[in-house]
Design a protein that fits this description.
Layout: E1 6-12, H1 16-32, E2 37-43, H2 50-60, E3 64-68, H3 75-85, E4 90-93, H4 105-109, E5 117-122, H5 129-146, E6 158-161, H6 162-165, H7 178-184, E7 189-194, H8 208-228
Parallel strand pairs: 1-2, 1-4, 2-3, 5-7
Antiparallel strand pairs: 4-6, 5-6
Helix pairs in contact: 1-2, 5-8
Length: about 240
């Protein structure tokens, strides 16, 4: 349907325990939101029965769609695939664990007309102490190396204009740098405090390596890209 304004990407990798809760939560959210939206599940080669549940949900509800990878490709690739296939003017993003709430999309949407992207930050995190420390280390590394002004780069709740998102240069680990990569284009970012909840089902896919060591490697990759990024504005042309 052409009247959808936003498609919300939900990457999924072995999240069987959360799929039905996602469907129920988003069905309730869709009924009260002023913005007509739909969900795009991106199954990243799940080994459990996540995709079977996704397929059943999508068969019975036009507000849910899916992409299924043949094998596991990683979070950044899942996000890129979602962006590549979306046709609505706005793109949303949220994690399958629902530690952030779909209802907070409405907080972000209040500002989206004035910014390239509006992103959440978790002002009151409900994670374990070790997880908070790992994230704090990762955020400190990123700020020291790229100084992008982003409070909480790990917060999954985001809304972007599709034309902006489709221009983001992608690489593995890109999901940590979406706001920075938008700024690289000359885009503008608004940050909004959002709710955060404990994980109810499933297991986190992150550990000390991919929260600390990988972000350090990716931050250097971003710095290299930033130093060589091509950006231009066409003033005039006569192309026919």
């Amino acid at each position: 349907m052409t009247d959808y304004k936003m498609t919300i990407i939900i990457p999924v990798f072995n999240e069987s325990g959360n799929i039905e809760r996602i469907a129920n939560t988003f069905n309730a959210y869709f009924k009260q939101s002023k913005t007509k939206s739909k969900v795009l599940f991106v199954d990243d080669g799940s080994k459990d029965d996540s995709f079977n549940k996704i397929e059943t949900i999508c068969q019975n509800n036009p507000n849910f769609e899916y992409l299924k990878f043949k094998f596991n490709c990683g979070l950044s690739t899942a996000i890129k695939a979602g962006i590549d296939h979306i046709k609505t003017p706005l793109i949303g993003y949220i994690d399958a664990d629902l530690q952030t709430a779909p209802y907070d999309f409405d907080k972000l949407l209040e500002h989206i007309e004035n910014y390239s992207a509006v992103i959440g930050f978790r002002g009151n995190r409900k994670d374990s102490f070790s997880k908070k420390i790992q994230s704090k280390i990762a955020n400190s590394i990123r700020r020291a190396l790229i100084n992008d002004g982003i409070i909480d780069t790990g917060c999954p709740l985001k809304v972007m204009h599709s034309e902006v998102a489709k221009k983001i240069p992608f690489f593995k680990g890109m999901h940590r740098f979406i706001p920075a990569l938008i700024k690289l284009q000359g885009g503008t970012i608004k940050q909004v405090n959002v709710q955060h909840f404990e994980r109810i089902a499933g297991i986190s896919k992150f550990n000390i390596f991919n929260r600390s060591i990988k972000p350090l490697q990716d931050a250097f990759a971003y710095r290299w890209m930033r130093s060589r990024y091509i950006n231009y504005v066409v003033e005039k042309n006569n192309i026919k």
